[in-house]
């Protein structure tokens, strides 16, 4: 780590790299199994290999990256069974999230959720990768509304890992069903029917898994420097900005 990096906040720089890589993985720019060489990352983001290694370690803790014995790193490639188990664990966590939120959301919070789903609906027709990212943001938004650090952390990590899974095991499907399921969840949350909203969440995520866990996608084999160019040059959009972009709707 250089003196300049230490002075400018190494953790901030590592966080910037990990956020950029996370978004590239979520949006399927980086596919499962893609190599993540420290030297290439350092060059792309203008940091030392040590900082690049710290960023990779953070993503490895989230299950998005696999660190190997020779100090190389690749985007994680979960097995089909690991993928199914991840969805099953996520289902139980998110049932807990909506149970806590049922009947307790403010008008402003409900409006925020509806605005997000409206953005998903208006964005229909865009890239599938963006569709998955928007769907993930909806679920993380729900977790954030619990104000529980534990739920926020684990729902976020599992949701990101599910994005990775969807890039590995997927098939085309209509985004309309996902948007409609999100709207039903909001209605049940507003009504305060905890049993109903837990059942809806279970059905929704189980349906996402069933629609997705079908076949392995073929790798595209693009150069990592070209893949990461847009992620290194621009910060990830805020949730508000994301809702304004004409993207595709999601599950």
Automatic annotation (TrEMBL):
Record keyword tRNA-binding present: no
Entries under InterPro entries matching the protein: GntR_C, TF_FadR/GntR_C, Tscrpt_reg_HTH_GntR, WH-like_DNA-bd_sf, WH_DNA-bd_sf
Location of the HTH gntR-type domain: 11-78
PROSITE patterns assigned to the protein according to its UniProt record, in alphabetical order: HTH_GNTR
Keywords: DNA-binding, Transcription, Transcription regulation
Signal sequence, start to end: none
One Pfam family it belongs to: GntR
PANTHER family: HTH-TYPE TRANSCRIPTIONAL REPRESSOR NANR, TRANSCRIPTIONAL REGULATOR, GNTR FAMILY
Protein's name according to its UniProt entry: GntR family transcriptional regulator
């Amino acid at each position: 780590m250089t003196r300049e990096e230490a002075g400018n906040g190494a953790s901030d720089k590592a966080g910037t790299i990990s956020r950029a890589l996370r978004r590239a993985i979520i949006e399927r720019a980086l596919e499962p199994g893609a190599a993540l060489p420290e030297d290439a990352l350092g060059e792309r983001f203008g940091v030392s290999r040590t900082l690049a290694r710290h960023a990779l370690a953070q993503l490895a803790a989230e299950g998005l990256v696999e660190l190997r014995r020779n100090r190389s790193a690749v985007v994680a490639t979960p097995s089909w069974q690991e993928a199914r188990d991840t969805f099953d664990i996520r289902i139980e966590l998110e049932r807990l999230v909506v149970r806590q939120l049922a009947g307790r959301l403010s008008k402003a919070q409900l409006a925020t959720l509806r605005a997000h789903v409206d953005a998903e609906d208006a964005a229909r027709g865009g890239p599938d990768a963006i569709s998955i990212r928007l769907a993930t943001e909806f679920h993380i938004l729900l977790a954030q509304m619990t104000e529980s650090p534990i739920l926020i952390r684990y729902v976020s990590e599992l949701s990101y890992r599910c994005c990775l899974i969807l890039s590995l095991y997927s098939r085309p499907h209509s985004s309309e069903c996902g948007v409609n399921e999100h709207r039903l969840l909001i209605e049940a949350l507003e009504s305060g029917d905890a049993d109903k909203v837990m059942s809806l969440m279970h059905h929704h995520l189980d349906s996402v898994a069933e629609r997705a866990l079908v076949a392995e996608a073929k790798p595209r084999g693009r150069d990592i420097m070209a893949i990461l160019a847009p992620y290194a040059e621009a910060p990830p959009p805020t949730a508000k900005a994301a809702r304004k972009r004409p993207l595709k709707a999601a599950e």
